[in-house]
């Protein structure tokens, strides 16, 4: 079985207002298969919903090998943060980039002792990524799965303890 090489040449930068269109386009590309499977893909709406929600203050751009590779937002909430708009270009998925970025973000929220929430489309492969990093299902509806991660619930030590005790 062939495995994808890990991508280690990446950096983060703050988003700028002129990043909105490349991100809206990436969102449409990344979400299209899941939205089509759910019967909810709309060529215009998928981009416009992002444009309407875009807030550069909380958005980070992911650069890999010197080019735009994706984005992620960590938006403050009353009881922690919401992880939103986490998209990696399809050609760079499966190379560890998403896990590396997520690990860094979660290390910060763990240090601050904060919860992180997100929602992912039902049936999305991204759910496995989030579960590997300690997110657990809080609730779900016909379209979305809402997940929560408590501080420290994705660290290697926590995972090792859970494997030996069988605890969630």
Topology:
Elements (H helix, E strand, L loop, with lengths): L9 E5 L5 H18 L7 H9 L5 E6 L2 E11 L2 E9 L8 H15 L3 E7 L4 H7 L3 E5 L3 E6 L6 H10 L3
Parallel strand pairs: 4-5
Antiparallel strand pairs: 1-2, 2-3, 3-4, 5-7, 6-7
Helix pairs in contact: 1-2
What would you note in describing this structure?
- Helices cover 35% and strands 29% of the residues.
- It is of the alpha+beta class and 168 residues long.
- The longest helix is centred in the N-terminal third of the chain and has 18 residues, at 20-37.
- It is globular.
- The two termini are 30 Å apart.
Structure summary:
35% of the residues lie in helices and 29% in strands. It has 168 residues and is of the alpha+beta class. A seven-stranded mixed beta sheet has the order 1-2-3-4-5-7-6, with helices on both faces.
Into which percentage range does the β-strand content fall? 25-35%
Tertiary shape:
globular
Average pLDDT across residues? 90
Return residue spans where pLDDT drops below 50 for at least 5 consecutive residues.
156-168
List the main descriptive attributes of the protein structure presented here:
alpha+beta, 7-stranded mixed beta sheet, 35% helix, single chain, 168 residues, disordered C terminus, 5 helices, globular
